[in-house]
UniProtKB/TrEMBL annotation:
Signal sequence region: 1-18
Coiled coil: none
EC class (word): hydrolase
GO MF terms held by the record: cellulose 1,4-beta-cellobiosidase activity
InterPro entries according to UniProt: ConA-like_dom_sf (IPR013320), Glyco_hydro_7 (IPR001722), Glyco_hydro_7_sf (IPR037019)
Organism domain of life: Eukaryota
Keyword Signal: yes
UniProt cross-references to CDD domains, sorted A to Z: GH7_CBH_EG
Protein name in the entry: Glucanase
Catalytic activity: Hydrolysis of (1->4)-beta-D-glucosidic linkages in cellulose and cellotetraose, releasing cellobiose from the non-reducing ends of the chains
A GO biological process held by the record: cellulose catabolic process
């Protein structure tokens, strides 16, 4: 929702980013099995893999090992302009477990928060599901459900173990942009509804124009351009709070933005994407006993998350009208919590246009969700195809308070929609989270998708 676009605070000897291909480290994607279902009890296992996002990778000269980007600044001699930088610099392969703390085993993916490698301390990661060595798997979940198991018992306040979909290109933009020689094999082409400016390469060119190093993250910065596309947050969560949130956009494909179209700063609602989204966070919607340690959905142990995408005519081409949520834990199916907010219908327990309109009205929030096309636009993004993203990150922008605490801080916690979780408003400072919870991790496993009612 308020995701810091790079999702990293990464200190690495010889760290940089780019879209040509280097040869100093072999790229071997960790394998991950998933299941596609056709009916209840009828699921077929598919052998897949994950790939690390290009923003994390070492970028060096095409002819050697000199960094093109160090700390949070570009080498001006190698990267004086976007096109020259793309020509001079090459992405390289990744040591997934040793450098980034990314491991797979069968159908399980574990992302570690802090990884101390021989030359680096890595913070967080972001990976995509691959269909082949050079293409992301594309999903259309209209009239379908998506299910996975989650163990986030070791994710404290201030962290986010996220599973979501972004409307990226299947090949990472390789076919559209001749300067992108790396493609999906090297995790290129990221975009989301926040139109992030800290993506190092957009449309096959380095985002060096107007680059400003971050004042509070020694390894991140922001360039002139952002990278926008529709985003469906299936799961943004830590052990204390969780939310699922559609974010539609008026653009229909990954789009490089500039100026007002990005929705930056005071123009948050004037850009091409709905940055707020229409979120269902059980705590924020009035049930403070539903999800958390020892609660109805007990985050102390693993459980199953089921998300169903209902269409108007129950077809994969119909208009998306509802997003439902179920949980399964210890063999028991748990229905989603009900809304308990004065002024809202107490029977609401899913994301519909009525829910979103009512929520925005009662909370006093701008209804950018409706302005950007609502559920129908979110469905259109799935119809075009979306990429599965899984990540672990801390938040240099808003300290994750929008997920697990009171937010915004200039409003009283008693006002509807402000309280989102039990974490203190002083929590989530990245330096504190990184030093106090280096062993934090999240495990996503048992991914299944298929017709509604087929995966659990």
């Amino acid at each position: 929702m308020f995701r810091a676009a790079a999702l990293l605070a990464f200190s690495f000897l010889a760290v940089s980013y780019g879209q040509q291909v280097g040869t100093l480290t072999a790229e071997t994607h960790p394998t991950l099995s998933i299941q596609q279902c056709t009916g209840a009890g009828s699921c077929q296992t598919q052998s897949r893999a994950v790939v690390l996002d290009s923003n994390w990778r070492w970028l060096h000269t095409t002819s050697g090992s000199t960094n093109c980007y160090t700390g949070n600044e570009w080498d001006a001699s190698l990267c004086p302009d976007p096109a020259t930088c793309a020509s001079n610099c090459a992405l390289d392969g990744a040591d997934y477990s040793g450098t980034y703390g990314i491991t797979t085993s069968g159908n399980a993916l574990t992302l570690k928060f802090v990884t101390n490698g021989p030359y680096s301390t890595n913070i967080g990661s972001r990976v995509y599901l691959m269909e082949s060595e050079s293409a992301y798997q594309m999903f259309n979940l209209k009239n379908q459900e998506f299910t996975f198991d989650i163990d986030m018992s070791q994710l404290p306040c201030g962290l986010n173990g996220a599973l979501y979909f972004s409307q990226m290109e299947a090949d990472g933009g390789m076919s559209k942009f001749s300067t992108n020689a790396a493609g999906a094999k090297y995790g290129t082409g990221y975009c989301d509804s926040q139109c992030p400016h800290d993506i190092k390469f957009i449309n096959g060119e380095a985002n060096v124009a107007g680059w400003e190093p971050s004042p509070n993250d020694q390894n991140a910065g922001k360039g002139q351009y952002g990278s926008c596309c529709a985003e469906m947050d299936i799961w943004e969560a830590n052990s204390m709070a969780a939310a699922f949130t559609p974010h539609p956009c008026t653009v229909k494909e990954p789009t490089r933005c500039e100026g007002n179209d990005c929705g930056d700063d005071d123009n948050r609602y004037g850009g091409v994407c709905d940055k707020d989204g229409c979120d269902f966070n059980s705590f924020r919607m009035g049930d403070q006993t539903f999800l958390g340690p020892g609660k109805t959905v007990d985050t102390n142990s693993k459980f199953t998350v089921v998300t169903q995408f209902v269409t108007a005519d129950n077809s994969t081409s119909g208009a998306l009208t509802e997003i439902r949520r179920l949980y399964v834990q210890n063999g028991q199916v748990i229905q989603n919590s009900k809304v308990n907010i004065p002024g809202m219908d107490a029977s609401l327990d899913s994301i519909t246009e009525d829910f979103c309109t009512s929520q925005k009205t009662v909370f006093g929030d701008t209804n950018s969700f409706q302005d950007k096309g609502g559920l129908a636009a979110m469905g259109d993004a799935f119809q075009a195809g979306m990429v599965l993203v899984m990540s672990i990150w801390d938040d240099h922008e808003a300290k994750m308070l929008w997920l697990d605490s009171n937010y915004p801080l200039d409003k009283d916690a008693s006002e509807p929609g402000v309280a989102r979780g039990t974490c203190a408003t002083t929590s989530g400072e990245p330096t504190d989270v990184e030093s106090q919870s280096p062993n934090a991790q999240v495990t996503f496993s048992n991914i299944k998708f298929g017709p509604i009612g087929s995966t659990f």
